[in-house]
Design brief:
726 residues, mainly alpha, 39 helices, BROMI middle region domain-containing protein, BROMI_M
Length: 726
Amino acid sequence: MFFNNHEIMQQVAEKMSRHRDNVVRVEALQTLNQNLPADFISSDHWPTMKRHLIDALDESNVQIMHLSTKFITRAFTNTSPQTREVYTLLVEYLISQFNAKKGNNIPNIKSGLDFTNPENVKLMKAFRLLNEFQQETINYWIRYPDRYLEEIIESTLTLYAINQSGSQGGSSLQLSPVHFIALIDPKAQWFIKWMHGNYSRQCLLRMLEKYRPIVTNAIRHCLEFSLHRKHSADLTDRSEARAIDNRRSYYTEAELEYAFFVHSAFMLGRMMCFVNGRRFFPIKLKEADETVTVTKLLVSMVVVLVDPSPSKHLSVVYEPGNLVTEIVKGICTSEQVCEICMYKDEIVTALLAPVSHYLEPKKHNYAPSENTMLHVADLFAMVASSTRGRRHLMYGERKDMFTKPNVSSAAHVIARFTKRALLDKLPKQSGPKPSQAVIGAFLYICRQLYNTCEGLLVLYQYELHKVVAEAWREAYSEAERTATPTMSDDSSDSTSTTTKAYDINAWEDTLRDNLLNFASTAKGILLLQQTKAMNECMTYMYDRYKNKLQVSKCEKFGYGFMVTQVAGTAPGMVALQKTGYIKALLSELWSVIESSPLDTVLFTPKAWPVDPIERSSHKSLIKLLNVLSSFHAVYELLGDKTLPKKESYGFREIPDSVVEFVDRFVIVDSPAKIHSLFNFEQSHVFGLRCLSVMISCLDTYLLLQSQYKFQDVLLTSQAENHTKDR
């Protein structure tokens, strides 16, 4: 430790000079690495040391270069504000490598990037170190003054702005710093993390105004990639197949350009998620006649996604369709941002191109791939997950819902495609039939529409309930005919049969699940009843409810709303009762209020307040009232049914019907009923709460009063509990 000894610091700084002998420089750098970096950075000799460290990074001597890199690495492991000085040092070194004097060492784009060249390896290591710090510093830069953040962002943008003023990203003679960082961080995680918090996002976007060529060149590169994609076989095949692998020794021009495109697309995708980011648009490019808007940029990305040209994609991670889908999904996560950016007829029309191929195949040359169709369906599903998104799909950008229906809107196109695909009536010229996964994905979009009253009205003309029911029955019959593999079967045949059986069962469940969702509306329940598949759908719903499965990928709530809709009709209530749902509901209720069937200790009931409803019981109350809120449901469960009259009730005798629930919890008119409850007062209050909601319907009130005379029972109980005057 030097404890900031001025003379020793000065000696170390002088020994680091490039004019000194290599042995002396190595000794000085070793001294530097044996002590805390903060001691040197805070000293008066740091400017001199900084200059000498930049020279050491550029040194051909491997040992000197390694020691200088080690010092920077050690400094970055610290979270002190002095790391700003080390970061700017590294940036200044990289800038010096791209300047006019030393720029000859930077390879040309056309010649590719060869990592057998030590100079290129040294540059890539420096950029990797830079990127690691960029992703780590976000965790603590809010602790320090604003100057810390501003210097880091400004120095970074100064570096990335080099070679960004050309007329075209790929026409620059030299590789730009963005090409290097794109190989290390293709999805621009450094930029996404810097845009996450308002503290850094505000500063970053403000400074990007000063360095607009970075944004302009990113937009230009995305447009160029979209425009010339069909003629870039090397770009789509080679760069995707081998992608970005740090163990490779050579990157072609096409791979470098593809990495640049991916980095630019993710950066722009993140910018479009924020108001200040969208203010960069529209942008006027020198070589373009029209300005580039957010819509035009998104259309160019969608064109990359839906491109029908045949290509052999060997890499899934960096396949253009996957990347564009990920970017657009990021935009769709916010309903407000999605409405501003995505709810445009131009974008929807571009997304519908693969679907239109199956309806009008003469207008296209190639059939879209399965992945393309799944990506398109995924994006439409995200749009349809919100009310505004559904209306955009149904009525278009104008939202004109009171004129003649627009049969060319996305909802109608998707419904026509889904119906024809399920009926196997797509034109033969369109190519192979879409897979079940694709049909199921587009059927899910239709389901998001028809599980609302407005959407069901729009799609009613396609009679999807009949089509889905017919397809489900065919799948059910096929599943019944599929042979069950046995131990005596050949292993390959057995595996094939098992896989086929699994696929058929999965397809059957998909169809039944989508058929079930017609029960989300009153009109839909009637349509579901007409298909005569109500019982099977209710059984399927109960199985999912019992296993606590999510309704769908875009619907995180449970089946409570659907149960309420189903219980509002007599046929629905009958089907629901047959599944065992009511019995399971009462069993769960009993375990919450009284005791679980699995409890072994009978004399320690749960503490239960009389007046308020706790969360544990409130959920059970809501579930029960969802079923009993309709007169049709109450009549099916209680109509013409008498209360059981027993002389005694066991502690483990759990009600398994609503009649028994009313007998044990509501009309408690005998000592045997009172003694059978661990928590008589609490359970009775719970039953009366249910009764108070049920009799809010006059029909239910008259039914219960005529059958059970509950009013007389309650008045008698009230009189018995009245305190006599003394």
